[in-house]
Amino acid sequence: MKPMAADKKFFFLAARREMTNTGTDLVLVDPWTGERYLRNETELRNNYRIELGDFVHACVDPQKILYNISKTKHTGNIWTKVDGNEAFVENVLSKLNNVQGRLVFQNKLFGDSLCSEELPLGEYKIKISLLPEPVKLLTGRLVHFQATGPVAKQTNPIVGAGFAVAPKKDEKIVGAGFQVAPKKDDAVKMRAVVLSSVEKPIGTHFYLWNLDSKTEGLFVSKNHSLAQGHHFEGIFKKNPDGRWTCQKYENPIEGLLTGGINPNNKIYFTVKIDKYQPAKGNTKYGHATAKYIGDVLEGDSENTKLSAECNGKMVNIQRRGIGDKDFVWMSVFIVMSTDSDKYFFAGYRGYYTDGATFLQIIGLGAINNQSFHVRESRLNERGIKLGDFLSATVPLGEPVKNFTRQNYKFKVNVDGNFASIEDQEADLEKNKEGILVFRTKTFGTVRSVSQTLEIAKYRITIRATKQSEEDLFNGMKYCADVKEKIGSSSAGSSSNSSVIVGSGFSMSNLSISGKRSMKAFVYNSIKKEDQNTYFLWICDNQQQSIFTSKIHKLEIGHFFEGIFEEKEKGKSKWQCTKYVKEIQKLMEGAVIGNKIELKVSIDRYEPGDGIGGRKPQVFVQYLGKIIDNQDKLPMNCVGRQIKTRMYKVGDDFKWVVTELL
Length: 661
What we know:
six-stranded antiparallel β-sheet
């Protein structure tokens, strides 16, 4: 039997940003053919760390859907620069030719690029960007790229070496020796990673670790916003105190160190250590070495002590102070496996069908879209209770394990089955979907319960999203109620109707009138002689609705825009009170046996908890959560297409995976 060939990977550039009615997409383009694919920018950033201007590897299925997506570098060592919603590939050596009556730049890396200037034929260095739409030449040939900023290649004369000129008698003969070492004050190019930052009037101070010199560094800038863990290359100059100052930021580089940020906003790196040496003489700590770091000291506790057996193992290290002034890299955790630890908050208590309780642990920071059910008794054995912070290992395809309670200084209030974090300060902003969110360091992006607030800074109370709210909140795991607006008195805030203090969730906060214009489709219907009842799915908030009419004849799969109103009583929480107009279909599908079956692409995957019986689930645009109750999906299914139908699960009707395409 022939071995199965590996899926072929194609090369793309994230070339443009496009605003659509569903959010913000990046255009991934094949640099040679110009073939384009749209993918949600938030998904690319969160799942693959891909930004505008990055190069990408991906496979393409027969339906032209990308999967096995990963970030990569161009083998030609070229770089990109982002300006607004476009990425420009810089300094590409190209030849200007006349193709079918048009001046076109051609090179070995990209397809043809239009020239917008009258230039003589020859070689140039150009910037390449993707055209908004392909341009068709007279013969039908498509050109996908355009060139800007052409600079003619300088032709240097070829010098042929002859005999050496004999020195004059009165001249000294100089014999070349070793190359002169650079002076201490010479500027050199080095690589660095950002450890922390502090905003000051003269500019943000970025505190660095220089990966080449293995020393501390500093970069001060008003024009850069660099996150912790950002790797870059820059021009550095050594100070008399031995620290290096970055004189110029050159360009970002791929991460050379892996690690993360703990909930106290402290960065750590996960490194492989070697050459362990025990403490000797007057030295208190044993130490080892790590690439790009240099010396790593062992910690004080038993689980951070190093030994010769640790050589070749992965260790989490942090910058720690010893004495009054000395800062060193110190072991804070010896990683027992290749699975890195992640940090969570035990947000609420739920109940399994057998009556046992579980705690829902929700990721912090960049993984705040991950959550797991863990049996409460299992966590209690580790000293973890509702409202605690913890670290845990999340192995691929296995239950969460290695729970360790973490001591973080937050004001946590436990009320019944819910825990909340009080007195947090955060700036309110709109995300790319137009939703008001609070941007926090520890908890990441948190949805504001009230959607009628003005953009400002607030003191908030953060809590876990309830299961009943999760679909409405587009899968966001944290939400926040406003306590007060910062910078205004509490008396003043009581007269400000946009600040709702201590309010619970209410859909009426989304609209002053309680009515909303939303898009929906018919997934089922009951037709009688004088009246038709249509069962709807609202695409905007991923909820069910009902529309009753004597004059409308709507088929299953019909998409339309309507006016919807929240009702306290009735067969459905949301009722369509007015049919406005038909709209273009937002999803592909078919009617099978009077049931609608839809074809959708997966945006996010969440595994089951492996203990309490919660099945894996995925999240898709317009539908929200879909349950994989028959375990049809692999864990690496993001970007793949599935078919789904609505079935009764327990007491509710839910979307269920029927087929992986």
